[in-house]
């Protein structure tokens, strides 16, 4: 008689793991012979069970727990179905695949947290005919899948061998060496079972494994598994290669670290270890990596870095290499600033910074427009040529501001050493890069605007020729591989915008001039200087001297007085200084307690600036015979020169005074030759040059004067003296004359005519070939001066002299007493000489 168990014993019995003997499908031909048609359903999240696969399952969901618990006392079989979406916690009928595996529950272990750990084994494939949800778990009516019998021919045997070999190869590549698993693979001769065994151990996605499960034909299933094994072999091979290379890299890094630590210890024992030396080398290495060096530069930098790492920190060469590497790491090898190519904005900036200069601004805007349409074009190297103070350097600043680029200025005036451009070689103590590379290092970008200032004042001596070094810098076809002696590696200068400035072109070599596009900046007119002062200079100087704009009022007449009487220049630097002097006087008044505002007019200039420095010559209503007004072009702009001539009886001597240059002396000789050859035309005695001495003088003798443009003025003054007839006093002229009487073109027409207008003259004669230059003169100013173009001097003769003067005959000239005495003395000396010779 069985003893009745206590409640405690019943609980212990329920908690004891239940087990069943393993199910071997090989012992029965029909898997459905002893299996029920209705089975509880266990939903699996991310795994597909195959036949003959033994797997532990952790059951947590209530329905699955209830399904497993039915196998404790009843049949030990459930249907394992994989859910389509592993995120679903409570899958419905449509969320499960319809083909699954009937598994035998071998063992159950209930965990303290109410989870169940079950050990299951797949025994048969089954398709769901119907799912029901009555009760605490799902039930399924199933149809078992019977695999067709397979005839073991050569093809099947070959597929079995290939599958085994590939499986062994995958295990070898993964580092899994299990003799038992190899023996198990060799013992399986059925295609379906081998396919299921291999598929259960392959890493496949859930949908791929499900498709393989649904294949009933064992041969087809084995073929699919073989294809998957082949892909797995390829993946495992690549993975092994990656792991091997990674391991080699790690081993090398560990080896380098170990050797480096050993080297550090050796240096420490020798007493020559420098604190922070390794950290400094590491910082240099990081800086070089961040610099984005080109390949050839990187090789040189790595070479020098290795040399530095093997040197003592106090070695002389170590500091040279360290400085070199720091320079290389700080250069902008890849850094480019973004260009602002808004042409209208550029025009606005140029107009804000500079008054006038319309042609120069147009050329700069054309340059920027071409760069906008074709950023890869090299373009021209612009060279601004003009007198001092007209704004050449500030134009470069405006271009940089318009483009949004960094601005750098290199003053080349007085440079004699070629190393200033190309740098010094590192073998010299105190070597450094050239000024081009230094400018790029300071700018921090590879495309700044660099102004080469005063390029016409570069010298040449035994230290080299800097102008020849500039040939490579300013050649767009060569400067993309510019070689600095210090760097000893090529640097690309093709993105740099170079602008040059010069006061004159004569001292610039022809090869260097050929690389630049010359843009001439003429001097400012009085009207332009006045506008510049009103717009820029007054405001700047008032602010610099601690005053406010509403406290100072400098009138237009005061500005005109400063320009005419205190400055004589083409630019505006002296004008700015004089305005600053006025503002300083006013600032002192304010500091002494006088209340602003202060007004300055023309009559106040003498008190503020002292007596006028420059006084204009007072023009007479009627010129004396032998005088004529000519036009000259100086650094201060256009000037009116008075040319004076005197003709006395003599022996044909010509005297030229007034610091005249060789060209101007030759113009005087050409004028005399022309008048001699055309003496009858002008009513002159054909031998006037043999009977008279001629003296030509240009006042302001301390100022050197030269050039051919005074030729027509010299001719007119000389003709006036010979005929003793005056020239029109409201007329001035300019032009070169040849011995045939042709009037040839000259330069500086704009400045000369503006100077004539400023002096109040009414008419001006110019060469006919200079008529094209009148477009540069404003229309309102042209109305104040009658401009007469001429081809031949005969036209000037008719304009300069009145009809009465042209008809007048030359008056006879008598020598003075001193001249007679000299002549008599000469005759006496001659007779005495003749007597001595006869003796």
Task: Describe the overall structure.
By secondary structure, this protein is an alpha/beta fold. It folds into 5 domains: 123 residues, LON domain-like (Archaeosine Trna-guanine Transglycosylase, Chain: A, domain 4, Roll), CATH 2.30.130.40; 57 residues, no CATH class; 162 residues, Rossmann fold, CATH 3.40.50; 84 residues, Helicase, Ruva Protein, domain 3; 181 residues, Ribosomal Protein S5, domain 2. The protein contains 29 helices and 25 strands.
Per DSSP, the total helix count is 29
End-to-end Cα distance, whole Å, is: 194 Å
Low-confidence segments, ≥5 residues, pLDDT <50? 1-21, 25-32, 816-839
Reported CATH architecture of the largest domain:
2-Layer Sandwich
Order of strands in the sheet with the most strands?
A: 19-20-18-17-21-24-25
Classification by helices and strands = alpha/beta
| Computed CA radius of gyration, to the nearest angstrom | 53 Å
Q: Give a quick account of the main beta sheet: strands, pairing sense, barrel closure.
A: 7 strands, mixed
What's the overall average pLDDT, rounded?
81
CATH class of the largest domain: Alpha Beta
Our count of domains comes out at: 5
Shape: elongated
As a percent range, the share of strand residues is 15-25%
Examine the coordinates and then state which fold CATH places here, giving the name of the CATH topology of the largest domain: Ribosomal Protein S5, domain 2
The helix content, as a percent range, equals 40-55%
Total number of β-strand segments?
Answer: 25
């Amino acid at each position: 008689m069985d003893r009745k168990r206590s409640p405690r014993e019943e609980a212990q019995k329920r908690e004891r793991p239940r087990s069943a003997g393993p199910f071997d499908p090989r012992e029965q031909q029909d898997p459905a012979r002893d299996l029920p048609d209705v089975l509880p359903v266990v939903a699996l999240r991310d795994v597909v069970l195959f036949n003959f696969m033994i797997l532990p399952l952790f059951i947590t969901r209530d329905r699955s727990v209830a399904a497993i618990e039915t196998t404790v006392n009843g049949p030990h079989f459930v249907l394992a179905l994989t859910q389509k979406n592993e995120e679903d916690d409570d899958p419905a009928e449509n969320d499960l695949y319809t083909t699954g595996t009937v598994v035998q529950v071998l063992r159950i272990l209930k965990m303290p947290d109410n989870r169940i750990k079950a050990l299951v084994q797949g025994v048969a494939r089954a398709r769901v005919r119907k799912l029901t949800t009555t009760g605490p778990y799902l039930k399924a009516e199933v149809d078992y899948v019977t695999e067709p019998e397979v005839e073991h021919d050569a093809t099947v045997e070959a597929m079995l061998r290939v599958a085994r070999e590939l499986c062994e190869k995958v295990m070898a590549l993964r580092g899994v060496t299990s003799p038992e698993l190899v023996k198990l693979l060799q013992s399986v001769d059925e295609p379906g079972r081998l396919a299921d065994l291999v598929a259960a151990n392959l890493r496949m996605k859930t949908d791929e494994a499900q498709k393989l499960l649904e294949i009933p034909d064992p041969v087809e299933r084995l073929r699919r598994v073989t294809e998957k094994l082949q892909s797995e072999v390829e993946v495992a091979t690549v993975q092994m290669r990656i792991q091997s290379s990674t391991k080699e890299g790690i081993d090398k890094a560990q080896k380098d670290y170990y050797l480096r630590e050993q080297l550090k210890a050796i240096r420490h024992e020798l007493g020559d270890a420098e604190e922070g030396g390794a950290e400094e080398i590491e910082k240099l290495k990081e800086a070089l990596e961040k610099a984005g060096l080109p390949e050839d530069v990187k090789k040189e930098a790595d070479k020098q870095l290795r040399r530095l790492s093997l040197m003592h920190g106090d070695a002389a060469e170590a500091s040279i290499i360290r400085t070199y590497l720091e320079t290389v790491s700080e250069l902008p090898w890849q850094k480019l600033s973004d260009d602002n190519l808004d042409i209208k904005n550029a025009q606005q900036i140029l107009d804000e910074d500079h008054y006038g200069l319309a042609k120069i601004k147009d050329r700069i805007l054309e340059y920027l427009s071409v760069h906008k349409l074709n950023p890869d074009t090299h373009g021209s190297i612009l060279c601004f040529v003009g007198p001092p103070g007209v704004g050449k350097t500030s134009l470069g600043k405006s271009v940089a501001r318009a483009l949004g680029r960094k601005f750098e200025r290199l003053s080349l005036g007085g440079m004699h050493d070629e190393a200033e451009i190309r740098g010094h070689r590192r073998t010299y103590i105190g070597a450094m890069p050239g000024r081009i590379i230094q400018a790029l290092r300071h700018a921090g970008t590879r495309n700044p605007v660099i102004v080469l200032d005063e390029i016409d004042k570069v010298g040449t001596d035994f230290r080299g020729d800097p102008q020849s070094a500039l040939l490579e810098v300013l050649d767009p076809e060569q400067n993309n591989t510019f070689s600095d002696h210090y760097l000893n590696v090529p640097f690309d200068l093709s993105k740099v915008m170079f602008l040059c400035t010069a006061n004159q072109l004569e001292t610039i070599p022809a090869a260097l001039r050929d690389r630049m596009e010359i843009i001439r900046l003429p001097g400012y007119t009085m009207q332009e200087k006045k506008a510049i002062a009103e717009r820029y200079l007054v405001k700047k100087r008032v602010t610099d001297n601690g005053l406010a704009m509403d406290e100072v009022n400098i009138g237009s007449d005061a500005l005109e007085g400063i320009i005419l009487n205190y400055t004589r220049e083409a630019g505006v630097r002296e004008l700015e200084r004089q305005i600053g002097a006025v503002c300083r006087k006013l600032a002192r008044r304010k500091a002494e307690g006088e209340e602003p505002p202060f007004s300055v007019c023309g009559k106040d200039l003498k008190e503020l600036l002292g007596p006028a420095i420059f006084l204009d010559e007072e023009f007479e209503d009627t010129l004396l015979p032998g005088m004529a007004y000519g036009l000259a072009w100086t650094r201060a702009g256009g000037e009116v020169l008075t040319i004076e001539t005197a003709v006395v009886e003599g022996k044909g001597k010509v005297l030229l005074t007034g610091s005249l240059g060789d060209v101007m002396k030759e113009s005087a000789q050409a004028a005399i030759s022309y008048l001699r050859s055309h003496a009858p035309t002008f009513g002159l005695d054909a031998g006037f040059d043999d009977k008279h001495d001629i003296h030509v003088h240009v006042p302001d003798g301390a100022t050197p004067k030269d050039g051919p443009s005074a030729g027509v003025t010299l001719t007119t003054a000389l003709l006036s003296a010979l005929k003793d007839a005056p020239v029109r006093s409201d007329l001035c002229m300019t032009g070169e004359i040849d011995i045939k009487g042709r009037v040839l073109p000259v330069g500086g027409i704009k400045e000369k005519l503006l100077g004539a207008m400023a002096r109040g003259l009414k008419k001006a004669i110019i060469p006919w070939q200079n008529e094209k230059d009148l477009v540069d003169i404003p229309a309102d100013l042209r109305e104040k001066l009658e401009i007469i173009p001429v081809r031949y001097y005969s036209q000037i003769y008719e304009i300069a002299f009145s009809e009465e003067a042209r008809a007048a005959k030359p008056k006879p000239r008598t020598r003075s007493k001193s001249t007679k005495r000299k002549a008599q003395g000469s005759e006496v000396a001659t007779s005495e000489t003749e007597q001595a010779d006869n003796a």
